[in-house]
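Sorry to interrupt, but I need a hand with the structure work. Can you supply me with one protein entry, sequence and fold together? No commentary is needed, just the two lines. Leave the record below and I will have a look.
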Amino acid sequence: MNTVLFVIIKILIIVIAAPIVGGLLSGVDRKLSAKMQRRKGPPILQPFYDVIKLFQKETTTVNNFTRFYVAISLFFTIFTVVLFCLGMDLLLCVFSFTLACMFFVIAGYSSYSPFSFIGTERELIQIMCYEPMILIAAFGYYEAAGTFSIGGVFGLSSPVILKLPLIFIGLTYILTIKLRKSPFDLSMSHHGHQEIVKGITTELTGSSLAMVEITHWYETIFSLGFVYIFFAYNTTASKIIAAVICLVVYFLEILIDNTFARVKWQSALKYSWIITLITGALNLLYFNFFH
């Protein structure tokens, strides 16, 4: 009984702490982006203010199921982060995460807006861009750690990065796509005056849009968690170093976001698959034939 209670408390801490950390990272992102653009920028807590305001606004939808699909997408994203933080099966986390993305796509298709439809099509392309690399990273983790269990990384005598350096490079590359950073922010524009208005979220308002923002906070934690398990192993120092590297990677993503202009979806698909093939396939081949 005590064990069950401990797990429940741990799950509650994860569910509450993950969006708080993700929201703070989003606030830091906006603050650093403003500094890079020579602006003052909003306060770090601004993402939380925005979400609270969205929940207070009236939610209008052209399809009654849109809000339901967004909520299901949020649920499976939370489920993914909980599984990940509990040290469960990495492959199950990847499949759960993909399911969350699919429900978000369905939410986009449930709208009758042409801008939302175009954004949804591009969201599918983005999934095609990053999903192969995430799967290869999961299989690479299994080859290096001998298990899909995320908790198993803390029993290793050396970090996974030593065996999978190319896969880590490829994973860092596609994180730019998953975190919706330029040059790969294809499906969801940051500002209303851009190419496809707000893309897949064009028709989302109020609590529906707030749930999308919260989902992105959880996605950020899951993405950085992937980076974390490449560097953490059975020492306390490695866990601290892994956390610092996660922050460094996130800063690099912010820097890239403010440095490069958006590319066409054809280029995003081509470059992501080329990087996946070169880094992922070569690393797995090398690991299997020379180790």
User: Anything to note?
Assistant: Residues 81 and 207 are 21 Å apart (CA to CA). Residues 2-290 form one domain. The chain has one domain: 2-290.
